[in-house]
Amino acid sequence: MTATPTPPPADIDPRLLEVLVCPVTRTTLDYNRARGELVSRAAKLAYPIRDGVPIMLPEEARSLEDGE
Protein backbone atom coordinates (compact mmCIF):
# COMPACT_ATOMS: atom_id res chain seq x y z
CA MET A 1 0.00 0.00 0.00
CA THR A 2 1.48 3.35 -1.02
CA ALA A 3 0.99 6.53 0.95
CA THR A 4 -0.91 9.35 -0.68
CA PRO A 5 1.47 12.27 -1.19
CA THR A 6 0.65 15.33 0.86
CA PRO A 7 0.18 18.42 -1.29
CA PRO A 8 2.51 21.31 -0.53
CA PRO A 9 1.09 24.06 1.68
CA ALA A 10 -1.05 26.49 -0.27
CA ASP A 11 -0.02 30.11 -0.53
CA ILE A 12 -2.59 32.86 -0.72
CA ASP A 13 -2.26 36.51 -1.64
CA PRO A 14 -2.31 38.56 1.60
CA ARG A 15 -4.52 41.17 -0.08
CA LEU A 16 -7.09 38.48 -0.84
CA LEU A 17 -7.04 37.35 2.77
CA GLU A 18 -7.84 40.93 3.85
CA VAL A 19 -11.09 41.01 1.85
CA LEU A 20 -12.36 37.44 2.27
CA VAL A 21 -14.87 36.75 5.04
CA CYS A 22 -16.72 33.65 6.16
CA PRO A 23 -19.84 33.25 4.00
CA VAL A 24 -21.77 31.95 7.02
CA THR A 25 -20.88 34.51 9.72
CA ARG A 26 -19.31 37.36 7.70
CA THR A 27 -16.36 37.36 10.12
CA THR A 28 -12.65 37.44 9.31
CA LEU A 29 -10.73 34.29 8.48
CA ASP A 30 -7.42 32.94 9.75
CA TYR A 31 -5.00 31.38 7.29
CA ASN A 32 -3.65 27.96 8.23
CA ARG A 33 -0.79 27.53 5.75
CA ALA A 34 0.18 24.06 7.00
CA ARG A 35 -3.28 22.68 6.25
CA GLY A 36 -4.01 24.90 3.26
CA GLU A 37 -7.22 26.24 4.78
CA LEU A 38 -8.98 29.45 5.69
CA VAL A 39 -10.43 29.06 9.17
CA SER A 40 -13.59 30.67 10.53
CA ARG A 41 -13.46 30.43 14.31
CA ALA A 42 -16.98 31.88 14.59
CA ALA A 43 -18.54 29.24 12.31
CA LYS A 44 -16.11 26.50 13.40
CA LEU A 45 -15.37 25.73 9.75
CA ALA A 46 -12.18 25.42 7.70
CA TYR A 47 -12.46 26.26 4.00
CA PRO A 48 -9.99 24.45 1.71
CA ILE A 49 -7.65 26.15 -0.72
CA ARG A 50 -7.30 24.15 -3.94
CA ASP A 51 -4.74 25.13 -6.57
CA GLY A 52 -4.45 28.54 -4.89
CA VAL A 53 -8.22 29.17 -4.98
CA PRO A 54 -10.18 29.41 -1.71
CA ILE A 55 -13.31 27.25 -1.87
CA MET A 56 -15.75 29.38 0.12
CA LEU A 57 -18.69 26.98 0.12
CA PRO A 58 -19.97 25.82 3.52
CA GLU A 59 -20.70 22.35 2.12
CA GLU A 60 -17.02 22.02 1.10
CA ALA A 61 -15.73 23.20 4.49
CA ARG A 62 -14.37 20.93 7.18
CA SER A 63 -15.89 21.19 10.66
CA LEU A 64 -13.35 22.15 13.28
CA GLU A 65 -12.70 19.77 16.14
CA ASP A 66 -12.88 21.02 19.73
CA GLY A 67 -9.66 22.83 20.56
CA GLU A 68 -8.67 23.52 16.96
Task: Describe the protein in words.
There is one protein chain. The protein has 68 residues and is mainly beta. It has one domain: N-terminal domain of TfIIb (Single Sheet), CATH 2.20.25.10. 9% of the residues lie in helices and 25% in strands. It is built from 1 helix and 5 strands; from the N terminus they run H-E-E-E-E-E. Strands 1, 2, 3, 4 and 5 form a 5-stranded antiparallel sheet that branches. Strand 3 (45-50) and strand 4 (53-54) form a beta hairpin. The longest helix is centred in the first third of the chain and has 6 residues, at 14-19. It is globular. The N and C termini lie far apart (30 Å). The model has no long low-confidence stretch (mean pLDDT 87). Pfam families: Trm112p. Belongs to the UPF0434 family.
Number of helical regions? 1
User: Which regions contain 5 or more consecutive residues with pLDDT less than 50?
Assistant: none
The CATH class, by name, is Mainly Beta
Shape: globular
User: Percentage of helical residues?
Assistant: under 10%
Number of strands: 5
Q: Approximately how much beta-strand content do the residues carry?
A: 25-35%
- Rg of Cα set: 12 Å
Secondary-structure topology with pairs:
Elements: H1 14-19, E1 30-32, E2 37-40, E3 45-50, E4 53-54, E5 62-63
Antiparallel strand pairs: 1-2, 2-3, 3-4, 3-5
